[in-house]
């Protein structure tokens, strides 16, 4: 039995050695300022869900470098004055249809906006599953940035949440829900200016935006960044089924 367990662990490590996992977690704002911004009410939330599912469709295994495959793990939550987990990190493309189905089924909460709590929950989800390399982990925060002032943030505030991600080496992309987003707060969320740019998830007839280019640019940025490769080393791999250690199919 001990020999069988050793061989299983060794083979799992060898297979994983040729994969470079990237963990991506979506943090979606479905608060009142988003849901009731334009008529028909809920239209911007519907666009955010469409944007997220289009993004998920792009998460396909690809040749990376040094004969390795870049593989994706993805999950999502949505929030208002509460945080609701849509799905924890799961291996793409195997878990794609289920994740997309759950995103499509989201109904907006339409109350206050606790973005700080949502970001910290996203950080937690990235840390408890997926790759052991924190530098290969990303948050995709889709929000309008409201409110600016006069509203209690119960989880330490937006800047504290953003600093926690930076301290842990997690990169945060900040994606606007337009119109009337608050750029200063979106800039606080982003790791730096490169992770903010003019990324947008919504588009209105009177002010059309190419949201597809946002998706393509973000994926290109991730793929072009030198990722940390896992190495065979002694020690536990984590629980069976951990998506960071699944063999590419």
TrEMBL record:
<keyword id="KW-0677">Repeat</keyword>
<dbReference type="GO" id="GO:0005615">
    <property type="term" value="C:extracellular space"/>
</dbReference>
<dbReference type="InterPro" id="IPR050525">
    <property type="entry name" value="ECM_Assembly_Org"/>
</dbReference>
<feature type="domain" description="VWFA">
    <location>
        <begin position="23"/>
        <end position="222"/>
    </location>
</feature>
<dbReference type="GO" id="GO:0007155">
    <property type="term" value="P:cell adhesion"/>
</dbReference>
<dbReference type="Pfam" id="PF00092">
    <property type="entry name" value="VWA"/>
</dbReference>
<keyword id="KW-0964">Secreted</keyword>
<keyword id="KW-0130">Cell adhesion</keyword>
<keyword id="KW-0732">Signal</keyword>
<protein>
    <recommendedName>
        <fullName>VWFA domain-containing protein</fullName>
    </recommendedName>
</protein>
<keyword id="KW-0272">Extracellular matrix</keyword>
<dbReference type="InterPro" id="IPR002035">
    <property type="entry name" value="VWF_A"/>
</dbReference>
<feature type="signal peptide">
    <location>
        <begin position="1"/>
        <end position="17"/>
    </location>
</feature>
<comment type="subunit">
    <text>Trimers composed of three different chains: alpha 1(VI), alpha 2(VI), and alpha 3(VI).</text>
</comment>
<dbReference type="InterPro" id="IPR036465">
    <property type="entry name" value="vWFA_dom_sf"/>
</dbReference>
């Amino acid at each position: 039995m001990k020999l069988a367990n050793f061989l299983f662990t060794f083979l799992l490590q060898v297979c994983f050695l040729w994969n470079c996992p990237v963990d991506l977690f979506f943090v979606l704002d479905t608060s009142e300022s988003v849901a009731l911004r334009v008529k028909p009410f809920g239209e911007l939330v519907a666009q955010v869900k469409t944007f997220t599912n289009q993004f998920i469709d792009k998460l396909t295994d690809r040749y990376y470098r040094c004969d390795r495959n870049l593989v994706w793990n993805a999950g999502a939550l949505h929030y208002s004055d509460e945080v609701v987990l849509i799905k924890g990190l799961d291996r793409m493309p195997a878990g794609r249809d289920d994740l997309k189905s759950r995103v499509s089924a989201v109904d907006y909460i339409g109350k206050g906006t606790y973005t700080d709590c949502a970001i910290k929950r996203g950080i937690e989800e990235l840390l408890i599953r997926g790759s052991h390399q924190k530098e290969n982990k990303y948050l995709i925060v889709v929000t309008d940035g409201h409110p600016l002032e006069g509203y209690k943030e119960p989880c330490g505030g937006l800047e504290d949440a953003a600093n926690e991600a930076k301290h842990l080496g997690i990169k945060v992309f900040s994606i606007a829900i337009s119109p009337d987003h608050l750029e200063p707060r979106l800039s606080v969320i982003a790791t730096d200016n490169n992770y903010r740019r003019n990324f947008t998830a919504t588009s209105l007839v009177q002010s059309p935006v190419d949201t597809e280019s946002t998706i393509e640019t973000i994926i290109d940025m991730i793929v072009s960044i030198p990722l940390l490769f896992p190495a065979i080393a002694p020690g536990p791999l984590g629980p069976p089924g951990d998506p960071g250690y699944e063999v590419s199919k």
